């Protein structure tokens, strides 16, 4: 770890420790039903427009104001949302029955026309850093049967439609008909059916909301909620200890032992479905500055196009050491991009064994006996220990002769940079209901007309993988879908399309007297936080 970073980390730790010592005797009031709830999230959303970017930060905030047709339970199961039923009435037609007597925040009725508008809107969003079109492009036409029934047509059989419908927020056609993304950010178009009504938004700081007294679902215990965006770990913990917020997410592993023994607080933890992996830039030109000769200067080729190099980088990752060093043990080494229990998970795939000499030999066989230099870019405020993961990767790869130039930056800056291919290797975390969903988005050959590859930053392309993913998505037989998704996952990983590193643990800390059932998808939803 560089001296400057060690100093900064040590100072932040010392300040937090000092603060704990000063704050310990103070007893903070426990929020009661009807009070204001204050939450500190670990990220800053790029927009309040629910169709702008399919990133966790944006989705978390949007979920407070807008609903989807299908919802996902804390355990990762599909449950009824604005739709009370869905069924395939023939191989290319899904019928959706909508919930009746639902009102938008402005008092207008929720109807099938709002759903049609919402499913068509993502394709009209421009300059999205992560489009929602992966979830809508399978739909070729939408028929409004009556005010509470739709039929969705697809060009070919498409089994996992409910999963796509759990990813698109429903907005009011009346309020959002001609709305821009800025109209959502200003609050003008923030009219949903969700558990909270929009109050105010301070970009980079917070969003406030009030309880939707007419919500169709379980109503909030809180009359008002304020969500603060606090990306610095130490600042989030300090805000909780000072009583400035009631709940924080993404508790740093180093602070968990102290918070667990603080009588004023309670802590919730769980293993999540989010997999962290290293994206590899397969498509960068040979003259890219992201690759250099060992001593500096141009390398003249993109070494990641060679599967032997990709395998060497994988063998050079000591995943267990990475988890222990960067996450202080709060994670598990991963071998694929979905978690156990998810459609397409292959239990036969094991994390790549650390093999220093084998990695060096592969590099030599590929024509790099002296190694090379590569730019690795990671966020510094999105995942647990993300910048430390980048440092550990650099240290491990230096042992096989790969010299890492590490760049770290806030997630809001990071994503646009990755979308334009300004990296050699990049860190990304992803959670999904199925390997076919994940592969379509992360490794499917980019195709805007189909909505494939919207997060395929490295522009990986493998027709055999595409064909298997396509077969999985077409299948209405769960066993066939799982088998095709599993084969696609195995093929992509044996080609070292990406390098999985670990599954991370999620943690929440809150004032005593509050409860939260930690979600497998790591989201923090105010309406699920309850007073005891």
**Strand proportion:** 15-25%
The total count of strands amounts to: 22
CATH topology of the largest domain: D-Maltodextrin-Binding Protein, domain 2
Number of domains: 2
The coarse silhouette is globular
- Alpha plus pi helix count: 16
Mean pLDDT: 91
Distance between the termini: 43 Å
Structure notes:
The protein is α+β, with helices and mostly antiparallel strands and 532 residues long. It folds into 2 domains: 36-264 and 512-531, Periplasmic binding protein-like II (D-Maltodextrin-Binding Protein, domain 2, 3-Layer(aba) Sandwich); 271-505, Dipeptide-binding Protein, domain 3. The chain has helices at 3-23, 56-62, 112-120, 161-165, 173-176, 181-185, 233-241, 256-260, 307-315, 319-326, 356-365, 386-398, 411-419, 435-442, 463-474, 478-494; strands at residues 36-41, 67-68, 70-72, 78-80, 83-90, 93-98, 139-146, 149-154, 169-170, 196-202, 206-211, 224-229, 247-249, 265-280, 291-292, 331-333, 372-379, 402-409, 425-430, 498-511, 514-516, 529-531. The strands form 5 sheets. Strands 1, 10, 11, 12, 13, 14, 15, 16, 17, 18, 19 and 20 form a 12-stranded mixed beta sheet that branches. A 4-stranded antiparallel beta sheet has the order 5-6-8-7, covered by helices on one side. A hairpin with a 3-residue loop joins strand 10 and strand 11. Helix 15 packs antiparallel against helix 16. It is globular and about 70 Å long. The chain starts with a helix and ends with a strand.
């Amino acid at each position: 770890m560089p001296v400057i970073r060690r100093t900064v980390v040590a100072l932040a730790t010392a300040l937090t420790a000092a603060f704990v010592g000063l704050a310990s005797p103070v007893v903070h009031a426990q929020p009661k039903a009807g009070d204001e709830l204050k939450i500190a999230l670990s990220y800053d959303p790029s927009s309040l427009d629910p169709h702008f970017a399919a990133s966790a930060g944006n989705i978390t905030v949007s979920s407070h104001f807008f609903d989807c047709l299908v919802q996902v339970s804390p355990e990762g199961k599909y449950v009824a949302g604005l739709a009370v039923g869905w069924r395939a009435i023939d191989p290319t037609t899904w019928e959706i029955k909508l919930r009746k007597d639902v009102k938008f925040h402005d008092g207008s009725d929720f109807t099938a026309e709002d759903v049609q508008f919402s499913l068509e809107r993502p394709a009209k969003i421009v300059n999205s850093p992560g489009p929602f079109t992966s979830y809508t492009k399978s739909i070729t036409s939408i028929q409004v049967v009556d005010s509470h029934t739709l039929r969705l047509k697809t060009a070919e059989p498409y089994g996992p439609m409910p999963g796509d419908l759990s990813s698109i927020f429903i907005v009011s056609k009346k309020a959002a008909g001609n709305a821009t993304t800025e109209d959502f950010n200003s609050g003008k178009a923030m009219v949903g059916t969700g558990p909270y009504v929009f109050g105010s938004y301070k970009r980079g700081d917070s969003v406030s909301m009030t309880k939707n007294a007419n919500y169709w679902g379980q109503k909030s215990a809180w009359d008002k909620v304020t969500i603060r965006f606090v990306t610095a770990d130490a600042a989030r913990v300090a805000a909780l200890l000072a009583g400035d917020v009631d709940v924080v997410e993404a508790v740093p592993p180093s602070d968990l032992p102290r918070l667990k023994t603080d009588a004023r607080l309670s802590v919730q933890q769980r293993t999540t479905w989010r997999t962290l992996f290293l994206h590899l830039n397969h498509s960068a030109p040979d003259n890219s500055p992201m690759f250099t000769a060992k001593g500096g200067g141009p390398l003249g080729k993109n070494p990641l196009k060679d599967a032997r190099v990709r395998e060497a980088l994988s063998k050079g990752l000591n995943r267990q050491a990475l988890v222990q060093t960067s996450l202080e043990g709060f994670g598990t080494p991963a071998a694929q991009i979905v978690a156990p229990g998810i459609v397409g998970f292959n239990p036969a795939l094991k994390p790549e064994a650390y093999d220093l000499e084998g990695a060096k030999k592969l590099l030599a066989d590929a024509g790099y006996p002296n190694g090379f230099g590569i730019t690795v870019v990671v966020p510094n405020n999105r995942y647990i220990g993300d910048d430390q993961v980048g440092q550990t990767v650099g240290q491990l790869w230096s042992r096989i002769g790969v010299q890492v130039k590490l760049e770290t930056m806030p997630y809001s800056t990071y994503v646009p940079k990755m979308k334009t291919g300004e990296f050699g290797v990049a860190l990304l975390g992803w959670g999904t209901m199925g390997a076919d969903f994940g592969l379509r988005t992360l490794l499917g050959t980019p195709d805007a007309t189909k909505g494939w590859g919207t997060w395929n930053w490295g522009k990986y392309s493998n027709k055999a993988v595409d064909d298997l993913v396509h077969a999985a998505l077409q299948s209405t037989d769960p066993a066939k879908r799982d088998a095709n998704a599993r084969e696609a996952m195995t093929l992509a990983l044996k080609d070292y399309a990406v390098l999985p590193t670990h599954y991370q643990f999620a943690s929440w800390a809150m004032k005593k007297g509050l409860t939260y059932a930690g979600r497998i998808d790591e989201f923090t939803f105010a309406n699920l936080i309850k007073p005891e």
